[in-house]
Amino acid sequence: MVKIRIRKEEYEVRAGMTLRHALEKIGINREAVIAIRQGEIITDDEQLEEGDEIRLVAAISGGV
Amino acid sequence: MKCRKCTQKAIINMRQHKLALCKEHYPEWIVAQTKKTIERYHMFTVQDKVLVAVSGGKDSLSLWDILWQLGYQADGLYISLGIDGGFGYSLESKRRTEQFSQARGLTLQIADVPETYGEGIPEMAQRTLRGRGKPCSVCGLVKRHIMNQAARQGGYTVLVTGHNLDDEAATLFGNTLTWNAGYLQRQDPVLPARHAGLVRKAKPLFRIYEREMTAYALVRGIEYIYEECPFVAGSKSIYYKELLNQIEADRPGAKLSFFLSFLQARENGLFAVATEEENTGAGGEALFTCPGCGQPTTVPELCTFCRLVGAKQDSP
Questions:
Q1: CB contact (8 A) between residue B226 and residue A44
Q2: Contact B20 A43 (CB under 8 A)
């Protein structure tokens, strides 16, 4: 399994799919996040491997 | 995915530009793009004395980092708003901003709202009709006033903010939903000083996506405040950004095109021509000088800010 964390939320997806598919599966817009694996930013065509832990950094901030 | 400029693995794919770059070439590209924007839109030059409004967030700290690398004379202004939110939001954002400026040997000015006015933004908002329920409107008013005041007092020729493309597109989207002609005329990456009490303003990051600024801050190791302002949850601007990102996911480049087409349409005369006359607002309205602070106001009396801070003495 692959763990995906964003803020305090945590999701699990199956290994073998691309990050893009994983984001679609958990309902997160790929335009709104940056993904980090082992301290490195990855693009959404990267294949997720067993045991991967992905941290998503939310890009959207707001207010006046 | 490989970097367009070398064989390294790409860290970002900017679909609207059909461009993927690695961790070495990406920050270089962002710096070059910002320089191009500053020059193309005649924002300022190396001779200008620039004041950067910094919040401790990714966009403003990244902008300061970029201007520093480009060799502009850029000092920072941090406004301490007195917002806690249960995790010391203002204290933490101030700490990170100070850490950033010290590491680069940059000059940082600090304006402390509670210290100067005896109360923070939440208290000001609570006291006034303008801010009841949602202090963002009062916060915006106070920040704009202090930024302009600090720039004038410090002899800065231009005030710059870290607004990115998503900020601008979301604002445009909101103003378009209500066809707010006055705001549509005023929204611009460069705002000239239309009054002796105003300083020129510019937004050098307005063509760069928010996601790209996040990646830039991460690659550069900028330790920005990740937590949001506690009052931002449920804001319209976040809602509009999410909607625009849904369109962007299906149509790469939609956000950029939305905003740039607006600027082009206005230049082509779609809206009434914005006047360049001094003492006249973008919508043609007369600008008066506030007898309290010397900044412009659309009424021949105290401006909204002076009434806000002055009203405190009058309230029970």
A1: no
A2: yes
Q: How many C-beta atoms surround the C-beta of residue A51 within 10 A?
A: 9
> Residue B205's domain spans which residues?
27-220+233-314
Q: Where are the alpha helices (DSSP H) in B25-106?
A: 25-40, 58-70, 89-104
Q: Please tell me if residue B242 touches chain A, with a CB cutoff of 8 Å.
A: yes
Residue B164 has pLDDT above 70, yes or no: yes
Q: How far apart are CA B42 and CA B66, in angstroms?
A: 17
Assess if residue B16 is contained within a domain: no
- Residue B7 located in a structural domain: no
The structure's pTM equals 0.92
Q: In this structure, is residue B15 part of a structural domain?
A: no
User: Is residue A14 classed as helix, strand or coil in its secondary structure?
Assistant: coil
Which residue is associated with the tokens 């200008």? B48
For residue range A21-37, what is the model confidence (pLDDT) as tens digits?
Answer: 999 999 999 999 999 99
Using a CB–CB cutoff of 8 Å, tell me whether B159 touches chain A: no
Q: Is residue A53 situated within a structural domain?
A: yes
Q: Give the mean pLDDT of chain A.
A: 93
